[in-house]
Structures are given as C-alpha cells and as structure tokens.
Amino acid sequence: MGKGDKRTKRGKIFSKSYGKFRARKPKNKITTQNPPTATASSDN
C-alpha cells in the first residue's frame, strides 16, 4: 500500500495514471446560470 499499489491515490500519482481514486478535474467548467439582466421598474 504505497507507491507501487496502483489501487491507491499515491500509486496512481507515482505511475502517472488516472482512475477512480484520482479523478481529473474538468478543464473548462461551463456554468449555465442565467446572466444578470436589467429589470425595468414600473413606477408609472
């Protein structure tokens, strides 16, 4: 259980591989939130 164990996070880092224990972060985090819009006030 260490650098030689490919089933651990440390082993994945050592062998330069990815998997369940060392998931990659997404490169582009696209958010689909609504942009702030100008609201018209009704002061008539």
Report on the structure:
This protein is an all-alpha fold. Helices cover 16% and strands 0% of the residues. It has 1 helix and no strands. The model has no long low-confidence stretch (mean pLDDT 76).
| Spatial separation of the terminal alpha carbons | 73 Å
- The radius of gyration over CA amounts to 23 Å
The succession of helices and strands, N to C, reads H
Major beta sheet summary: none
Query: Could you report the average pLDDT, rounded to the nearest whole number?
Result: 76
Helix content: 10-25%
Give the amount of beta strand, in percent.
under 5%
Molecular shape: rod-shaped
- Got a strand count? 0
Tally of individual helices: 1
Spans with pLDDT under 50 lasting ≥5 residues?
none
- Helix/strand-derived category reads mainly alpha
What's the topology here?
Blueprint: H1 9-15
Search tags:
44 residues, mainly alpha, 1 helix
Question: What is the structure about, briefly put?
Answer:
The protein is built from 1 helix and no strands.
